[in-house]
Structure formats: C-alpha cells, structure tokens
Amino acid sequence: MDKFTTVTSVAAPLPQADIDTDMILPAQFLLRLDRALGPFAFHASRHGPVPFVLDQPAYKGAQILVAGPRFGIGSSREHAVWALHDLGVRCIVAPSFGEIFQANAVRNGILPISLDADGHARVLAAAEAGTTIRVDLDACMLTIDGEQPLPFPVAEHDRETLREGLDETAQILAHHGAAIEAFEARQARETPWIDLTPAQLASFQSLNNRTA
C-alpha cells in the first residue's frame, strides 16, 4: 500500500453521525472481483436529490473527509475502506470510529484521526469553509491554514504501518523474512517430501506401491 507521510488538501464535510459500512458501500457491490469500488461509495447519497459532498466541485478530489461520530460502525466489511481509498480519501477526521473499520483503515493506508469536540468543530468549520488542511503523520499534527496546529493521537504501531506503507503480510516479511527463509531451507533439507509437486508425489507413491 502507499506510504503515508503528509497530506495537504481541502476536506469534505460529512458530519452525519452513525454512518455505517453499508452506507459507505452497500452490500450489492460486495461481490465485485476488484477493488475499483469508488464509483459505488455512498451509493444512496450520491443518487439522491441533493449533490453529494464528494461530487461537488469544491470537494472533488478531497483527500480528507471530516465525518460525524461513530463513523464506520456496522459490519466488518473491508470493502468500505477499499471504496474510500479508491475515491482518493487518505485521512478521515471524526470524534470516534467503528473499531473494526478503524483497524481496516490503517491496514489500507487511510489515517483515522479522532479529535475531541473542540478540535473536531474547528476542523469541520475549516472543511465547510473550503480551507486547506495539512496532516503530518511524523509530527502527529493537523494544521488548518492560519491557525495553531492541532495534535492528534495515533498508536505507534498504526503510525509505523502507515509510514512504512506495509500491510500485515508485508510487515511479517520485512521483519521476519530472513527467519522464514532459513526455516524453509532447513525444512527442505530435513523433510523434502513436504515440497513435492503433485506429479512427484504420484511418482513417489507409484514407486512405493511397486516395491511394497
């Protein structure tokens, strides 16, 4: 996944509370075979009578989303995060998140930022005004043009995951790859039959049957 260092962008305001994963990506799109899910994100809202915020000219291409409390509650579908990432969203600011959604966001290169009521109100006001916002993961600071920076909390493991751009599998390979290779080499020497191809295994079994 892409590394996250800084993001500078206008922020799209979506302050509604309790936006669940089905609202982010409805169930009828879960059977698609790729992650190009951006066009289907917020499907119901984008086909309503009022232009959806991310489709409005002022917020098209916004990399930051300012959401309401309990964003991403509901089912554990990771597709909701894939859809947001495909839209170009790299950071979501909200008072709180669904726990599984928050973990899925980090694993897919999206930074979820939880702020208290005052901090969230400041960022939401900036989003509604179309003011540029800068998010710096190294400093753990969110800066609104012309204002004092806002510090935000982030778990160190999540911070490193985003900075390195490594999902869980890539982290295991990066930190334990040499040990895994050494184990596989030793296993190949000591138990070579484990790595036989189906054709080799069939030949081996045939030989055993003839000599039995």
Write up this protein.
The model has no long low-confidence stretch (mean pLDDT 91). The longest helix is centred in the C-terminal third of the chain and has 23 residues, at 168-190. It is built from 8 helices and 8 strands; from the N terminus they run ββααβαβαβαβββααα. The protein folds into 2 domains: 6-164, Aconitase, domain 4 (Alpha-Beta Barrel), CATH 3.20.19.10; 168-211, no CATH class. It has a 4-stranded antiparallel β-sheet with strand order 1-6-7-8, covered by helices on one side. It has helices at 21-24, 43-46, 79-87, 99-107, 117-129, 156-164, 168-190, 198-211, and strands spanning 6-9, 11-14, 64-67, 91-94, 111-114, 133-136, 141-144, 150-151. The protein is an alpha/beta fold. Helix content is 40%, strand content 14%.
Sequence-ordered SSE layout with sheet pairings:
Blueprint: E1 6-9, E2 11-14, H1 21-24, H2 43-46, E3 64-67, H3 79-87, E4 91-94, H4 99-107, E5 111-114, H5 117-129, E6 133-136, E7 141-144, E8 150-151, H6 156-164, H7 168-190, H8 198-211
Parallel strand pairs: 2-3, 3-4, 4-5
Antiparallel strand pairs: 1-6, 6-7, 7-8
